[in-house]
Automatic annotation (TrEMBL):
Catalyzes the specific phosphorylation of the 3-hydroxyl group of shikimic acid using ATP as a cosubstrate. One of its GO terms (molecular function) is shikimate kinase activity. GO terms for biological process: amino acid biosynthetic process; aromatic amino acid family biosynthetic process; chorismate biosynthetic process. GO terms for cellular component: chloroplast; cytosol. Keywords: Amino-acid biosynthesis, Aromatic amino acid biosynthesis, ATP-binding, Kinase, Nucleotide-binding, Transferase. Its EC number is 2.7.1.71. It is an enzyme of class 2 (transferase). PANTHER family: SHIKIMATE KINASE (PTHR21087). InterPro entries: P-loop_NTPase, Shikimate/glucono_kinase, Shikimate_kinase/TSH1, Shikimate_kinase_CS. Coiled coil: none annotated. This is shikimate kinase. It catalyses: shikimate + ATP = 3-phosphoshikimate + ADP + H(+).
């Protein structure tokens, strides 16, 4: 067990240490802090599941997997769940052959079933927030909004392609610009819905608090730790554990 002074380190120090020493690979320090915070928050959650919401590319799937390990929870990606129910048909194929409304019906049923299970971290699809019934299901747990600037989302998605994101499909032209325009249009419609989440983690605010210039230097693990810090704050009604805060 590390000396307790590790836990007295301020959030800025702790984040900066881990980000300073590791851009894309979680440092030992980061992994240890993640597990320590995960154990603390898991006991506060008392079995309640976590539903991650946010735009396409915001990191729901990536951060969700890290969170589930830290909490000792199962991880489920609701898109993958729907694909399994549909006999392995891809999201893209469901959209093209059955239409978006059909997909949304299966997405709602997936969220209804998942809301009945304890100790899950659920990475929802970016459009889960548009149906009120989905919020009824997700509010059985704790909802967390990953708020990431459109520029970063467009860069991430342009880098991996829109295979599983038919709503951002584009025929030709500059990938980044096409994706940015698509995300911008969707974000205008959905912005208020995301704000209904119990907890919001703004990656921009996190970067600013750590004096990190480029938000792509904020690792998925650092974001997962911030999610845990904010969940604890939410569950304890702002009497957040001071052990990792200034
Ligand atoms: N903090 C991060 N920094 C850099 N790239 C990230 C980060 N989080 C996610 N990504 C990348 O962005 C892309 C989308 O992430 P993903 O988890 O699939 O998002 P979502 O499930 O919200 O659509 C993936 O290629 C992933 O590796
Ligand atoms: O925003 C959306 O409407 C969608 C987001 C996708 O999930 P990700 O947010 O994981 O990309 C997937 O559910 C589908 O392409 C629709
Ligand atoms: Mg996803």
């Amino acid at each position: 067990m590390r000396p307790s002074m590790e836990l007295s380190r301020s959030r800025k120090d702790f984040h900066a240490t881990t980000i300073g020493s590791s851009y894309f690979h979680a440092s030992i320090d980061e992994r240890w802090l993640l597990k320590t915070k995960g154990d603390e928050v898991s006991s506060c959650l008392d079995g309640r599941s976590i539903f991650l919401v946010g735009m396409m590319g915001s990191g729901k799937t990536t951060v969700g997997k890290i969170l589930s390990e830290a909490l000792g929870y199962s991880f489920v990606d609701s898109d993958k769940y729907v694909e399994q129910v549909m006999g392995g048909a891809s999201v893209d194929r469901i959209f093209s052959q059955c239409g978006e409304s059909f997909f949304r019906d299966y997405e709602s049923e997936a969220l209804r079933r998942l809301s009945l299970m304890p100790q899950q971290v659920v990475a929802t699809g970016g459009g889960a927030v548009i149906r009120p019934i989905n919020w009824e299901y997700m509010k059985q747990g704790v909802t967390v909004y990953l708020d990431v600037p459109l520029d970063a989302l467009a860069k991430r998605i342009a880098a991996v392609g829109t295979e599983s994101r038919p709503l951002l499909r584009f025929e030709s032209g500059d990938a980044y610009t096409k994706v940015f325009v698509g995300l911008f249009t969707l974000s205008k419609k959905r912005g208020p819905s995301y704000a209904s989440a119990d907890v919001t983690v703004s990656v921009l605010d996190l970067a600013r608090s750590l004096s990190v210039e480029d938000i792509s230097d904020i690792t998925p693990t650092a974001i997962a730790i911030e999610v845990l810090v904010q969940i604890e704050k939410y569950l304890r009604g702002d009497n957040v554990s001071t052990r990792m805060l200034p």
